[in-house]
Automatic annotation (TrEMBL):
Pathway annotation from the record: Nucleoside biosynthesis; alpha-ribazole biosynthesis; alpha-ribazole from 5,6-dimethylbenzimidazole: step 1/2
Identification of the protein by name: Nicotinate-nucleotide--dimethylbenzimidazole phosphoribosyltransferase
Keyword terms of this UniProt record: Cobalamin biosynthesis, Glycosyltransferase, Transferase
Active-site positions on this chain: E317
Organism in which the protein naturally occurs: Thermosediminibacter oceani (strain ATCC BAA-1034 / DSM 16646 / JW/IW-1228P)
Its biological purpose: Catalyzes the synthesis of alpha-ribazole-5'-phosphate from nicotinate mononucleotide (NAMN) and 5,6-dimethylbenzimidazole (DMB).
Top-level lineage group: Bacteria
EC number of the protein: 2.4.2.21
UniProt GO BP: cobalamin biosynthetic process
Coiled coil residues, start to end: none
Similarity-based family: Belongs to the CobT family.
Catalytic activity from the UniProt record: 5,6-dimethylbenzimidazole + nicotinate beta-D-ribonucleotide = alpha-ribazole 5'-phosphate + nicotinate + H(+)
Signal peptide range in chain numbering: none
Length: 351
């Protein structure tokens, strides 16, 4: 609990003075005001996060949190649990989708075992196993409250370690067969929409498995009775270890005034937990894309975040965050490299 308490006390507001200066410069660049849309919003937000007009990004890191889920016993996934450790090794050998997109963005990948059911060994894997996967949420709590806090603190510690090494922007990623089920359960706690509108097909399950998935989530909510006013309790009852670590990564980044680019559905479930623990941490979140999972738009609306991309993606791993790094850098280059009317010797103001 000590790491969590330390992180929470250091999360504050954005720097309004830097944001005002950024807005003024953007309004005086050689273009119609607001014509670069979200790129301008990003530049202003980054100025507020970094407390400077011209922030730079030099070291990009994507943290992939991995954990397994007891609810796969209910037939909610198209893939067996054995795929989780296999994909971790794929990440670490450089062969996954996230590796390709991270290389393209010039980002480093950090993979953390928060709670896989199997033992995975690789020299580059960070092993912080809280427990061997969660229990089946359709039959009882996913984990204890103490384990939920430990998972969050794994994320905080990971974020701080990477920031201490020079990371100036983080992206969230996940790995865990079955993890759209607890993510949907978390969303259901905070949304008034019918469960059928929130739950998607994850890795591509058929109609029969989708019915099993909805049934399992309904049972999980009925049995565990998660209290929306107790986000750590929600995590412990219907969440996942990697989801908790993602929440911790966000809180850790926010406590050091480092922006964190949120990936898709699972990452945004972690973002909801983080925001319910400390609402100010949303100041440091950047939404990368809108996932194909039907509940993702609802998640982003709950957080008050607008995604930059809509690419029909549903892979997870941090792939959307890797793509979005390029847009964040583009926004910073606009404000620092584009000329103002005075600098360019252009008369008048474009409307």
């Amino acid at each position: 609990m000590k790491l969590l308490e330390e992180a929470l006390k250091n999360i504050g507001d954005l720097d309004e003075i830097s944001m005002k200066k950024a807005k003024e410069r953007l309004d005086n660049l050689t273009k119609p005001r607001g014509s670069l849309g979200i790129l301008e919003d990003l530049a202003v937000k980054m100025a507020g996060i970094k407390r400077e007009l011209y922030p730079k990004i030099k070291n990009k890191v994507i943290t992939i949190m991995a954990g397994d889920h007891g609810v796969v016993e209910e037939g909610v996934s198209a893939f067996p649990q054995e795929v989780t450790p296999q994909m971790i090794l794929n990440f670490l050998s450089g062969g996954a989708g996230i590796n390709v997109l991270a290389r393209h963005a010039g980002a480093k990948i950090v993979c953390v075992d928060v709670g896989t059911a199997a033992d995975v060994f690789h020299p580059d894997l960070i092993i912080k196993k809280v427990r061997r996967g969660t229990d089946n949420i359709s039959r009882g709590p996913a984990m204890t409250r103490e384990e939920a806090i430990k998972a969050i603190e794994v994320g905080i510690e990971t974020a701080w370690n990477e920031i201490d090494k020079g990371a100036d922007i983080l992206g969230t990623g996940d790995m865990g067969i079955g993890n759209t089920t607890p993510s949907s359960a978390i969303l259901a706690v905070y949304s008034d929409e019918p469960l059928e509108k929130l739950v998607g097909r994850g890795t591509g399950i058929n109609d029969e498995r989708l019915k099993l998935k909805i049934k399992a989530i309904n049972r999980a909510l009925e049995i565990n009775q998660p209290d929306p006013n107790d986000p750590i309790g929600v995590l412990s009852k219907v969440g996942g270890l990697e989801i908790g670590a993602i929440a911790g990564c966000i809180l850790g980044a926010a406590s050091r005034r480092i922006p964190v680019v949120i990936d898709g559905f699972i990452s945004t479930a972690g973002a909801i937990i983080a925001a319910k623990i400390e609402p100010l941490c949303t100041n440091y979140m950047i939404a990368s894309h809108s996932s194909e999972e039907p509940g993702h738009k609802t998640m982003l609306k709950l957080l008050g975040l607008e995604p930059m991309l809509s690419m029909r993606m549903r892979l997870g791993e941090g792939t959307g965050a890797a793509l979005a790094f390029n847009l964040v850098e583009a926004a910073l280059k606009i404000i620092s490299e584009m000329a103002t009317f005075d600098e360019a010797g252009v008369s008048g103001q474009l409307e």
